[in-house]
Backbone:
């Protein structure tokens, strides 16, 4: 969006970032901001389908979900929550610094945000790796087919992995894990895309593209970043914390 | 009114740049609209060929043209192509892209690059889907019901699903672009209540696009995960729930019907008001009924699950809500009719299509009530009655409005006039062909002919008679659709040059040259009148005053 050049249509003193089809910078900023908000609405609906599946199956198999949920490492999840909240703060500070025209601060806060975002992804990767080693990957095509009761009986998987209460099927534990992997996977994908855009914004800030008159990209990206944080704020308690009091069954 | 003269040759959006690259890299909403028009016509042609093959197969009771497995693939592909690659994008992506900025006095859509991207996404999705068809096709029905699609079907569900998943983003981006454009880029004086009804309907459509399409995206994605890895999302053997798929699928796919028909209603509102030379009766009611349809559209998906394990109480609520959709739809039909009352109507081709739309939409809507009612739906579910009903709404509605709009704005798009006599003739042929195709199917369905079958009992002679009528109608419809293709192509070279405002109408899109310059208007227009202002100049409103005295509409 930033490379658009003013045409002869605009006044000669128009801002170089003003695109040809907008009347003024205010209109352009408004359009961009609204566009991001509308996009975030579509994102809510996208995640909504997965939240619906989560709700449905949690309602159907509460015990299995509690057992599976207790196997997640809430400490790592909690640290990650903290990391993300701090990254939201640094992002907000980056937006603020751009608005008041402090290029140096903008760059520092953007770098901090990027580092925190990557830290989140790193911790996530550690968690996923643990699940892989614990044979908790759902799916019949996965080698070893860990959630198949027939295989589990043959002692292919760790029998002490779950203390399954009466009437809880390992299949329903698998149900939790596909939801966990798809939802956190989709969230991580959004983080990765976000980190990519963040690098572009960082380069733009480095080159001094932003000023108190023109800071829409930082601001609009900030909205996206906060949104991805908010999704995690919902995911963390739903996946890690609900049913925690049932530990020790 | 200004003087209208044929413009001398000058720079417009068509000749501003030359070469294939100038088209494939364009950011001009008008050119992108034309790119869409070409692609959509191609998909419509393929979908129509499948339709003809289906009709030919059903001419006789035996399956003597194809085997059942081939037939399953034929109707599936007919459905997928027509729904996802023609009906849903048709009006918004072509006419909407072309006209939304012009009608509100903007130079372009808010995000021209995203607009071009949406066309590429559409093409990518289309190519992947076409590949799936060529590679072997899909036999699940366009609804992809689980567990058949995830566990049992051996066909190209994944590739087709991928095509639809990708195509969905094009729909989302178009909707996003429209909403932002309508909110932020209206010309000075273009208040919300001065917007043409075409804009209102596209606004409502865009709301459905951005709220519904992500849900089908995640549904198709989950379907792909399930099919790839058998993780038990929809498979009851693994604890999953196949009905969850139906809920998620219809949460998008029922509102999708309104993505198809709402823009059509917007086109028809334009045509009815403009060719009656009268302000539309009850402007605000027509505008807000679009939004009401968009909202109600999201509350009725359960009527697709009346016979799919849904509780009878849920069924009752969904039945009630489905009836409720008739209210805003009827508001539109009544207001169009009231607009026609004592109007000076000109029966030009677009108007003929608009009148045809009202007829077909009314039949389609009334038969919808049969299906919305719990008890009758149990009898009519999955029969040809349903087929006839949704073809009347989706095809009768969308296709006729699309053709009407195409003729109406053809002078603006191409700068040439089409031959009026041929236009009227083809409109008549389309209307007759359409009714002959689909009205026998109501009877067929009522008599018990199930959908998705490629044979029927030989002893049911009346069924065959009705099928033969339907196939004959389809042939007539096909001819009726070929005629415009020929004369519109002819008019591009030989048609009379169009004036800026060939219909002598007040809309903003007619206040610039035909075809328009790249940035639509030489100067940003300032809007001083309500939409559809046909009143004599001395009664026109004072600038800046929003309400004004109007004579009682019936005598206006």
Residues:
């Amino acid at each position: 969006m930033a490379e658009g050049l003013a045409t002869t249509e605009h006044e000669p003193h128009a801002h170089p970032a003003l695109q040809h089809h907008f009347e003024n910078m205010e209109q352009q900023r408004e359009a961009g901001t609204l566009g991001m908000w509308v996009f975030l609405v579509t994102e809510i609906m996208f995640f909504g389908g997965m939240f619906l599946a989560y709700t449905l199956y949690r309602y159907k198999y509460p015990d299995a979900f509690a057992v599976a949920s207790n196997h997640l490492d809430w400490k790592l999840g909690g640290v990650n929550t903290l990391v993300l909240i701090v990254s939201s703060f640094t992002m907000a500070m980056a937006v603020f610094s751009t608005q008041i025209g402090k290029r140096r601060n903008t760059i520092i806060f953007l770098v901090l945000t990027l580092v925190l975002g990557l830290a989140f992804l790193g911790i996530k990767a550690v968690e996923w790796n643990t699940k892989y080693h614990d044979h908790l990957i759902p799916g019949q095509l996965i080698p070893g087919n860990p959630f198949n009761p027939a295989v589990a009986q043959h002692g292919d998987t760790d029998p002490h992995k779950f203390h399954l209460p009466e009437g809880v099927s390992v299949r329903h534990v698998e149900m939790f894990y596909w939801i966990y992997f798809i939802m956190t996977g989709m969230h991580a994908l959004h983080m990765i895309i976000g980190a990519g855009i963040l690098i572009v914004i960082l380069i733009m800030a480095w080159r001094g593209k932003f000023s108190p008159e023109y800071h829409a990209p930082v601001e609009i990206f900030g909205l996206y970043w906060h949104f991805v944080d908010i999704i995690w704020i919902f995911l963390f308690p739903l996946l890690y914390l609900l049913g925690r009091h049932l530990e020790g069954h | 009114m200004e003087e209208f003269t044929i413009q001398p040759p000058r720079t417009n959006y068509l000749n501003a740049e030359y070469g294939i690259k100038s088209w494939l890299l364009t950011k001009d909403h008008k050119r992108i609209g034309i790119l869409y028009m070409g692609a959509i016509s191609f998909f419509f042609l393929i979908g129509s060929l499948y339709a003809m093959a289906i009709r030919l197969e059903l001419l006789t009771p035996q399956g003597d043209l194809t085997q059942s497995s081939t037939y399953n693939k034929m109707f599936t592909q007919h459905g997928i192509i027509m729904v996802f690659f023609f009906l849903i994008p048709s009006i918004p992506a072509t006419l909407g892209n072309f006209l939304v900025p012009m009608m509100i006095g903007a130079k372009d859509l808010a995000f021209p690059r995203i607009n071009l991207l949406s066309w590429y996404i559409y093409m990518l999705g289309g190519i992947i889907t076409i590949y799936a068809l060529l590679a072997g096709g899909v036999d699940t029905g366009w609804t992809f019901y689980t567990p058949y699609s995830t566990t049992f079907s051996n066909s190209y569900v994944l590739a087709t699903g991928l095509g639809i998943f990708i195509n969905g983003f094009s729909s989302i981006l178009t909707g996003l672009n429209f909403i932002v454009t309508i909110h932020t880029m209206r010309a000075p004086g273009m208040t919300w209540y001065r917007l043409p009804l075409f804009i209102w309907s596209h606004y409502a459509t865009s709301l459905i696009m951005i709220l519904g399409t992500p849900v089908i995206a995640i549904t198709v994605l989950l379907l792909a995960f399930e099919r790839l890895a058998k993780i038990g999302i929809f498979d009851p053997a693994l604890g999953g729930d196949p009905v969850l798929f139906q809920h998620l699928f219809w949460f998008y796919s029922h509102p999708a019907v309104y993505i198809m028909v709402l823009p059509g209603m917007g086109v028809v509102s334009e045509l009815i008001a403009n060719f009656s030379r009268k302000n539309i009766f009850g402007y605000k009611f027509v505008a807000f009924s679009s939004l009401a349809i968009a909202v109600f559209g999201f509350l009725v998906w359960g009527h697709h699950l009346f016979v799919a394990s849904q509780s009878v109480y849920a069924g009752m609520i969904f039945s009630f809500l489905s009836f409720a959709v008739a209210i805003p739809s009827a508001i539109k039909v009544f207001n169009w009719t009231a607009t026609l009352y004592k109007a000076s109507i000109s029966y030009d081709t677009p108007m003929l299509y608009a009148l045809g739309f009202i007829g077909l939409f009314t039949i389609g809507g009334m038969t919808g009530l049969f299906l919305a009612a719990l008890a009758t739906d149990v009898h009519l579910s999955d029969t040809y009655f349903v087929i006839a009903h949704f073809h009347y709404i989706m095809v009768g509605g969308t296709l006729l409005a699309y053709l009407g709009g195409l003729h109406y704005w053809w002078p603006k798009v191409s700068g040439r006039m089409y031959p009026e006599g041929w236009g009227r003739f083809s409109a008549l042929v389309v209307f007759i062909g359409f009714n002959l195709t689909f009205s026998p199917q109501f009877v067929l369905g009522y008599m018990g002919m199930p959908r998705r079958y490629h044979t029927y009992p030989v002893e049911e002679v009346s069924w065959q008679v009705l099928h033969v009528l339907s196939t004959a109608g389809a042939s007539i419809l096909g001819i009726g659709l070929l005629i415009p293709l020929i004369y519109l192509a002819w008019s591009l070279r030989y048609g009379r040059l169009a004036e800026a405002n060939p219909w002598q109408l007040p809309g903003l899109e007619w206040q610039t040259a035909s075809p328009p310059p790249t940035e639509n208007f030489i100067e940003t227009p300032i809007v001083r009148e309500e939409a559809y202002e046909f009143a004599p100049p001395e009664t026109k409103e004072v600038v800046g005053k929003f309400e004004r005295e109007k004579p009682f509409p019936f005598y206006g």
